[in-house]
Amino acid sequence: MAKQRMLQFVTVGKEMPEKRPAPLRAQDFHEIYREFAAEKAAEQAGRCSQCGVPYCQSHCPLHNNIPDWLRLTAEGRLKEAYELSQATNTFPEICGRICPQDRLCEGNCVIEQSGHGTVTIGSVEKYLTDLAWENGWVKPVVPAMERTDSVGIIGAGPGGLAAATELRRRGVQVTVYDRYDRAGGLMTYGIPGFKLEKPVVMQRIEQLQESGVQFILNCTVGQDISFDAIRGQHDAVLIATGVYKARDISAPGVGAKGVVKALDYLTASNRKSFGDDVPEYDRGELNASGKRVVVIGGGDTAMDCVRTAIRQGAVSVKCLYRRDKANMPGSQREVQNAEEEGVDFVWLTAPKGFTGGDVVDGVMVQRMRLGAPDASGRQSPELIEGADYIEPADLVVQALGFEPEEIPVLWGVPELAVTRWGTIKADFRSHATSMPGVYAVGDIVRGASLVVWAIRDGREAAEAMLAYLAQPVTVAAE
């Protein structure tokens, strides 16, 4: 009788890939989790209960066919498992690393809910795709037939690259415009290497170039080229710029030297990992070495900043967040990793201002408490009078999230409709904007969100654009 490969969760416990010891991993920017061995990946995949209604799949924005590729992994049919995983996910090796699985697929796993510990879906996904790259299973996209249709994509982040992949698969000529000198968006310059090593991103960019996607880098729309010029050169346009405008603190002393923005700080660190010349880092302005660091914020960007500061050799790293740990928006897995590495979380605190004059030397901190729940059920923080104190700091990183830039103004297209939040208004299915032949996806539509949602948007928009390109051209009667 053949061995039962699945439903092993009763006898086999949940096991993540081995995590490098905190003192060791805090000294470099390499990824902290080791790879599964083939036997361990099969064992953990075999814990899947093969649900009739798989909540892991329904809570995945891409609706990945998770139970089936877990079963194939457990059976040792690894190439088939990879092919099934990438059928719905353009970048599974990236999602396997940076998706907040604890809030999505793994957090909704049936055996997790029943107390047996979730299937480690993200780790198996990462294992499969890394194996696929090693064995040459990942090939450049080769369309069955080339088309003359041309699409311009503004933004080389996950949404734009996902759309580019699907459009090239159908033979469309694709040009991607991006303001940075490397493609990848926040995957390249915003996410640290200990979560997503840069060769993982660069190999995808190279694959797209080999597939015929043209990249025009160091190109800022509205300055180096007009939006109208891009529209004139292509049959359709996709806006996938992301949101890069940092939310600022309105407090005394915010302009002092040493109070910096999260994205500037993370970009400088990531550029150093590429071997770039980064004067602001070398001068110490965007370098935590030997400093008392305070990071303000509680999302995943704040977690990236505190863990980067530890690796740069900060004397101390403290994270101020105005709610408690249970109400923190960032991944609980990331919070745990940060605590293991020596980050001190100061819950229920908010900045009131900064001391030191021209050069910051401290943060004026207000203590908070959680008050009555709001309409969504979330408790609002309230100030505790008379409980202020000063937290010494040589470097303060603001990680309060991002807002959209005023694209209609910057690009000179007032007819491009936006929401009251400044995001581009687009149809939630087709991703079409108010301008004919112009589509928008990702954070510039959703607000700051997840890579996996941007990938979904990009794939959906590609299908809608293909339908648009297939429409007959009407010629006005003379």
Question: At CATH's second level, what is the architecture of the largest domain?
Answer: 3-Layer(bba) Sandwich
- Summed up, the helix count is 19
| Overall pLDDT level | 93
- Record the strand order, biggest sheet: 3-2-1-4-16
Percentage beta strand: 15-25%
Protein name: Dihydropyrimidine dehydrogenase
Keywords: 4Fe-4S, Iron, Iron-sulfur, Metal-binding, Oxidoreductase
GO molecular function: 4 iron, 4 sulfur cluster binding; metal ion binding; oxidoreductase activity
Pfam families: Fer4_20 (PF14691), Pyr_redox_2 (PF07992)
Describe the overall structure.
The chain has helices at 22-25, 38-45, 55-58, 66-74, 78-88, 92-98, 110-113, 121-134, 158-169, 186-189, 198-210, 227-233, 262-273, 279-282, 300-311, 332-340, 407-410, 443-446, 451-469, and strands spanning 150-154, 173-177, 214-216, 236-239, 245-246, 259-261, 292-296, 316-321, 344-347, 349-355, 362-373, 379-383, 389-392, 395-398, 402-403, 438-440. The chain is α/β, with parallel strands linked by helices and 478 residues long. The protein folds into three domains: 8-134, Alpha-helical ferredoxin (Fumarate Reductase Iron-sulfur Protein, Chain B, domain 2), CATH 1.10.1060; 150-243 and 404-469, 3-Layer(bba) Sandwich (FAD/NAD(P)-binding domain); 252-402, FAD/NAD(P)-binding domain (3-Layer(bba) Sandwich). The strands form four sheets. A five-stranded parallel beta sheet has the order 3-2-1-4-16, sandwiched between helices. The termini are far apart. The mean pLDDT is 93. Pfam families: Fer4_20 (PF14691), Pyr_redox_2 (PF07992). Keywords: 4Fe-4S, Iron, Iron-sulfur, Metal-binding, Oxidoreductase. This is Dihydropyrimidine dehydrogenase.
